[in-house]
Amino acid sequence: MSQLRLLAGVLRVRCTLGSLWLRGNGSGSTRRCLDSYRRMSSSGSTPVSPAIISSSSYVEEMYYAWLDDHKNVHKSWDTFFRDLQASSPSAEAGEKRPSTLLQGRVGSHSPDTAQKVVEDHLAVHTLIRAYQIRGHHVAQLDPLGILDADLESFIPCDLITSFDKLGFYGLNESDLDRTFQLPPTTFIGGGNSTLPLREIIHRLETSYCGHIGVEFMFINNVQQCQWIRQKFETPGIMKFTNDEKRTLLARLVRSTRFEDFLARKWSSEKRFGLEGCEVLIPALKTIIDTSSAAGIDSVIMGMPHRGRLNVLANVIRKELDQIFCQFDPKLEAADEGSGDVKYHLGMYHERINRWTDKNITLSLMANPSHLEAVDPVVQGKAKAEQFYRGDTQGKKVMSILMHGDAAFAGQGVVYETFHLSELPSYTTHGTIHVVVNNQIGFTTDPRVARSSPYPTDVARVVNAPIFHVNADDPEAVMYVCRVAADWRTTFNKDVVIDLVCYRRFGHNEMDEPMFTQPLMYKQIRRQEQVLKKYSDKLIAEGVGAQQEFEEEIAKYDKICEEAYASSKDEKILHIRHWLDSPWRNFFTSEGEPRSMTCVSTGLEEEVLQHIGQTASSVPVEDFTIHPGVSRILRGREDLVKNRQMDWALGEYMAFGSLLKDGIHVRLSGQDVERGTFSHRHHVLHHQEVDKHTCVPMNHLWTNQALYTVCNSSLSEYGVLGFELGFAMANPSALILWEAQFGDFHNTAQCIIDQFISPGQAKWVRNNGIVLLLPHGMEGMGPEHSSARPERFLQMSKDDPDHFPEFTGDFEVQQLYDSNWIVVNCSTPANYCHVLRRQILLPFRKPLIIFTPKSLLRHPDARSSFDDLTEGTKFRRIVPEEGPASERPDQVKRVIFCTGKVYYDLAKERKQHNLEGDVAVTRLEQISPFPFDLVRAEAEKYANAELVWCQEEHKNMGYYDYVRPRFLTVVANKRPLWYVGRDPAAAPATGNKSTHLNELRRFMDTAFDLSAFLEQNL
């Protein structure tokens, strides 16, 4: 041992001095040594050149000389070697002078032999590191034994898979029984600091090349790497008690027999069963059990359709009869919307975790077949629950995401979601990702489906450890799940479990996989079920008996049969049984349904003044702001003094007044803190102190709610999904996502099409998320002009051919029947009102707002405080209020429009002195269409031509939506003429001159009757 300690010292000196010299710097004793050496070299007190310090032979000679007598070397070397030895984990206090050690070390060996010993130890250290880095490449991960999980049969040359490879390290079989010093970066010794090479290789293969493959050496944190090494390298660490094994078997029974039962009862139905990865159910339950023991009491989950029914039944514990009745084609749907297929539905359940005897809430989010789309939604909901519970470290609420291998590698939203994982305003403090790795995507071989070795490689971008595991080894899976849950608890970072499995049937039960994967499915047909293999193993170990196993099966089969019989009693299919985000007590007030009315959205004068003064000041002392921001604040102050507001102040009034009432406001998106158009400035930055900021909105009231404004990553799909999930958690919060430009929502279209527009119809899911989409033809080119209003209007569900009749509040009833609300406000006051109405309504609907760009600073786009005081409310239309409204019978033309184009029309009308002849009415709420108010306007101007004017091209914008509804309003007795740009493929021209000519042309048309009639007739 003394010789090995001496050798360890030599190794330390060689590695430490050589590497630090090459880096040109060092720390502690090394830096002092190098500095002293440089001084000696420069003063001529030593004849050795600086380069020699990296010479191993020179360092060794120096070290041996020092060990023999400390006076043999310069005092700087003496200091260095003393410090190095004192810092060694294996150093012994008060160790004797090591001259006696040299008698057996140097005296009996030649310098070449000593050099060889050192090199052999370095080689063994390198070998250990090679297994830690690349051992997963040769791990036995595929249950079928026919594929390579990393798509590559090549065996890394630095792994000792056969003893003839020892030559790679300069070793041979005669070295196998030699004892080597272990480095401090391994735990394979199990408390021993030395092991024979043969045992070292055996323990490395056991740790890294069995049924578990660990990817972690890319993590740039030593503590985290050491933690993982200890979990997988410590000999005998993967142990289970007999009770744990019996529990695991019982869970496998439930998972397997559930799928068998469905297959027997509904052999011709799609169910996307879990066969081939039945271990997923005990895996999830192990994660939940371990997390529950660590304090987690709420778990939010998202997953694709494969295995969803099994997870609902055996993890969430959805009533089996409610699942089975979904297969009855004769069951009548409740009058609650379109519903969705059974393997898209979600669930929310509170129960006792029997393993820990603690309460736990489990929520499986509903989601469509658009794979991975639910990922950011789950993260947003988890973040919201953490926020409202004050769980700032994720110690109570956590998320689990399940994935398919092909989707995990192929869908970009996975990458977007990972990049939210450690952002301050988006982190959920660690997500456990479970990949059900079928080793196939529908019919596509993974070799043509991804370029990375593993489907999980995307997780490396955030330094998440990846645990690959053979899904036919249940105990290995359970151990990996425990480690993953412990990792999340310890480090609050993402972790990935790659369940390498297979898909026993095709993509669904009706599909024939032999068409495209004949050899794989020949092997699958021969593959024994994991339940049978594991039960045989436990019986052989004496953990259980065959009779116990059969009784467990019979017990669960009986449960399924009883639930099946009970499901026959169901007559109506209730979607509400599948609600994944219930809002307790929101739809009732003191036990009674909430009134279907909306109170006034106006504000007191004192509130307006107070918010205005805060918005135009810096509420923190000694805070230096940019001169440009100072000018903006002074401008706001002048507006407030004159009882006026621009767009930014209108938004301030809405947010500030809601915060006063305890409503949390969250605004998220790209550059929202300042605002894309430099109008908002909700976060002020100290100009002389880095990272010192002030959010004036959080200084409005003493007991106000928190205002969260956060710049997002450059992501639309992921961030919009996140905010949608955030809005699901709490109806008493205003959650807004702002696109940098309106057309940026294109890359988040999946969230809009699959979750926001049909969410309530499919999943009875109310949601009050607000989308702010800057829109307007400003001559800036095809991009960033149009927010594509036609797309939102096309998906609006109101009937164009039916004039709705309501007995109560027309406005509220119409909103209640809609799937979402689409508005284009033209005044700051109306913008403020619609935001406040969003919270004051007795229900929640998504709100789409086409926000302005040039109007943010337009001198006419101002509102008086009078438009926002008590008794006022959102105006669905703003009718003509000028001279034309005083003589409606003499008006020749009524121009209906929406948004920014109103100001162009108003300017043109004034220039031509037509204010008494032409009325201009603005539609502020476009959908649901304000039938009642439009009819009143049409009847008021009974002798006038009806015109729809828009700045968008004819095949875009609002025209196709409003035209049939106008005709319904007038019972098809009067035509509606179109004025605007001609049809086009691009949203706008890229030529400024062309843009202005187009504007000039349709302005002339709007006010020139002859040209107008010529165009339309």
Give the key terms.
single chain; 1017 residues; Rossmann fold; seven-stranded mixed sheet; 34 helices; metal ion binding; thiamine pyrophosphate binding; nucleus; oxoglutarate dehydrogenase (succinyl-transferring) activity
Describe this structure in words.
With 1017 residues, this protein is an alpha/beta fold. It has 5 domains: 2-108, no CATH class; 113-233, no CATH class; 242-578, Thiamin diphosphate (ThDP)-binding fold, Pyr/PP domains (Rossmann fold, 3-Layer(aba) Sandwich), CATH 3.40.50; 605-775 and 824-867, 3-Layer(aba) Sandwich (Rossmann fold), CATH 3.40.50; 877-1016, Rossmann fold, CATH 3.40.50.11610. It is 41% helix and 13% strand. The chain is globular and about 110 Å long. Residues 14-56 and 89-108 have low confidence and may be disordered. One of its GO terms (molecular function) is metal ion binding. It is found in: Mitochondrion; Nucleus. Residues 645-858 form the Transketolase-like pyrimidine-binding domain.
Fraction in beta strands: 5-15%
Number of strands: 30
Give, in spatial order, the strands making up the sheet with the most strands: 3-10-11-9-8-4-7-6
Q: How widely separated are the two ends?
A: 104 Å
Instruction: State the fourth-level CATH superfamily of the largest domain.
Output: Thiamin diphosphate (ThDP)-binding fold, Pyr/PP domains
Helix content: 40-55%
**Count of DSSP-assigned helices:** 34
CATH class division of the largest domain? Alpha Beta
CATH topology of the largest domain: Rossmann fold
CATH architectural arrangement of the largest domain: 3-Layer(aba) Sandwich
